[in-house]
Amino acid sequence: MIEQHSFWPKLVVVLLTAICVVCFTPEANAVNEETIIIDGSTGVRPLVVALTDRYTAQDNTAVAFEVGDGMNPTLRIKALANGDIDIAMASHGIDMDKITELGLVVYQFAKVAVVIGVNENTSITTLSHQNLCDIYSGRFTHWRSLGSNTETITPLIRPHSEIDAEVVMKHIPCFSSLDIAPTIIEFEKSGQMARALAQTPGAIGITTMVRVAQSHGKISALALNGVVPSVDNVLNGSYSLTRNMYLITRAVPTPKITDFLTFLTSDEGKQVIIDNNAVPND
Predict the structure, then answer these.
(1) Which DSSP letter does residue 247 get?
(2) Is 1 among the domain residues?
């Protein structure tokens, strides 16, 4: 006698197996992830990316981050208020009256040294304030004038309205009233400046210690008037060229945004900030 087998139990097993495979694939789990959209200051961006990378590396996080390429101060606040982004990055241009009016909250999470960076092929390690002004006025055009190699100096600058340039003009007296040589190349975004410094022999420009840390040795930070832009010198105030870093959220952020903000003040979050040559906020 031919043994008869029921078709339906086998079909049920196949269907249940398929359902379980779908439920436990990364794609299915990703549906439960919250995507946090961050945009704003390009100078704050590299440290935020380092922090989000470390945060998402934790086993218990069900969150993804999208970090944009930059928004000006007005647009970032408008985008946050409208719900187009979840967190705004900022370093200056914060109108606290407007922030309060829109029901937003500002968190300072770090401070970083603004530095004069040079390409790795430049052997010089320190400049006086006057040396710097002589370079940007066009008086010095070769590094040999300053006791370094014979490369032509390629000065780079940020727009005067950008925070890095504002810090330099505030703390280096001769720079505030300097007639910048017309041949100097200007970069609107800090990432553009960092790439040019890393790729251009003889280059000098305004950047931050976070950019230096992430350049893998392609950019060196100069001491100014003999003061090195170290974390200790930022903390004790002897190196005064600094900028604060802020994140701005809506007054009642989601639980996962709150958890990320808490991570910034944890020991692990603070270590990420320190590893990137910045100073955690107390």
Answers:
(1) E
(2) no
Tell me, rounded to whole angstroms, the distance of Cα 131 from its chain centroid: 28
> CB atoms < 10 A from the CB of 237, how many?
8
Instruction: Give me the percent of the chain exceeding a pLDDT of 70.
Output: 87
Give the three-state DSSP class for 199.
Answer: helix
What is the spatial distance between Cα 80 and Cα 99, in angstroms, rounded to a whole number? 10
SS3 content of the chain, % helix, strand, coil (to 5): 40, 25, 35
Q: CA quadruple 141, 227, 159, 199: dihedral positive or negative?
A: positive
Instruction: Tell me how far CA of residue 18 lies from CA of 12, 28, 161, 239, in angstroms.
Output: 10, 13, 58, 62
Residue 50 sits in a domain whose CATH number is: 3.40.190.10
The 10s digit of each residue's pLDDT in 145-177 is 898 776 899 999 999 989 999 999 999 999 988
Instruction: Give yes or no for a contact between 42 and 17, defined as CB atoms under 8 angstroms apart.
Output: no
Residue 90 forms part of a structural domain:
yes
Q: What is the mean pLDDT of residues 215-241?
A: 96
What is the pLDDT at residue 128?
97
Whether residue 3 lies inside any domain: the answer is no
Whole-number Å distance between alpha carbons of 77 and 245: 15
Q: Say if residue 175 is in the same domain as residue 259.
A: no
pLDDT digits (tens, 9 = 90+) for 98-115: 999 999 999 999 999 999
Return d(Cα 188, Cα 38) in angstroms, integer: 20
- Report the distance separating Cα 8 and Cα 21, nearest Å: 20
**DSSP letter at 147?**
T
**Full domain range(s) for residue 207:** 112-236
**Encoded tokens for 225:** 């008037």
pLDDT in tens, 32-62: 678 999 999 999 999 999 999 999 998 666 8
Within 10 A of 182 (CB to CB), how many other CB atoms are there? 6
